[in-house]
Amino acid sequence: MTVVEDLRRARATSHTTLSQLAELTGQTRSNLSTLLAGTRDPQASTIERVANGLGLTVIAAPLGNRATVAQLVDRIADAVSTGNTSRAYRSYIQIADNLEAADPFTRILLAAQEPASIDARYDAAVAAVVDWRLSAAGLPTPHWAANRSGDPEDRWRIPAEFDDDQLPDAADVPDSFRNRGIWIDAKELTSA
Q1: Is 1.10.260 the CATH number for 3-53?
Q2: pLDDT tens-digit profile of 98-110?
């Protein structure tokens, strides 16, 4: 994933129009459009201006070659849009794995950026795994995840190629999932 993709995602989640961003950054709409489309390589100063216009600060962070939650949600959204439930599921499990393997500071960085919305169920599922993994380390849940509540009565299970539609026992579903209506066994959230 690239900085431009992060800027594009930040613009979408903040609902900032190109006209608004142009006014905030002093860039032309045309320049911003080509930059955000990824059709030209921007200078670092331009990236910083656009990031600042979106309320972001560009930092180089040591993430241990791990994709962020927002980047993995983009992969999930792409997989869902093409009907590839197996890839969507693997990307979801990757969120859990990345957050589990990282030190506390890196966990916060991996989950800091609000991911794009997929749909209410996937949004709740992503919020649940972030809440679960960060809470397990005594870390705060990001505002975006705390606000994605889901429907506790839903009892939705993320589709997977081996899915037999059998819901796990309630005792095996972490509270952060069950409270959002996401039914996944905690043991599924760890890769072999």
Answers
A1: yes
A2: 999 999 999 999 9
